[in-house]
Amino acid sequence: MRLNGVDDRLERHQYPTTSEEIIAAHGNATVELANGSERLGDVLERFGDQTFEDAEDVFTTLRAGVCHRGVGRRFYSDRDPTTDAEEGPSPVSF
Q: DSSP class of residue 69?
């Protein structure tokens, strides 16, 4: 996820602040996702009314709230166990 410069604006924003104030000031900014983009206001509206103590609180909420286009391949995991018909990785002893 890329914030397209809105991260600098969020860091300069006066805190503590509410999600309503962030949306009013920066809601039309877009965040670039793995497969598309999304309005910052749309992401924050999913969480309802919140109070943010600092910019990092906003960034955490944004990372948690982006739609499925923000996570790359859906339902993909490189941690799935191997099946009986597959050769799995060789065990390594440290």
A: G
